[in-house]
Amino acid sequence: MKTFRLFIHQHTNFMPAFWSILIVVFETSLALYILRNL
C-alpha cells in the first residue's frame, strides 16, 4: 500500500511534464499539418 501511494505521488509529480510534452507534440504536428495543406 505504501509503494502504491509512492507511485501515485511520483505520478502526480510526473503528470505536468507529460502534459506539456503532449501539448508541444500536438502543436507541432498541427502546425506541420497546416503547412502541408497550404
Automatic annotation (TrEMBL):
It comes from the Bacteria. The keyword Transmembrane helix applies. The chain crosses the membrane at residues 12-35. It comes from Yersinia enterocolitica subsp. palearctica serotype O:3 (strain DSM 13030 / CIP 106945 / Y11). This is Uncharacterized protein. Keywords: Membrane, Transmembrane, Transmembrane helix.
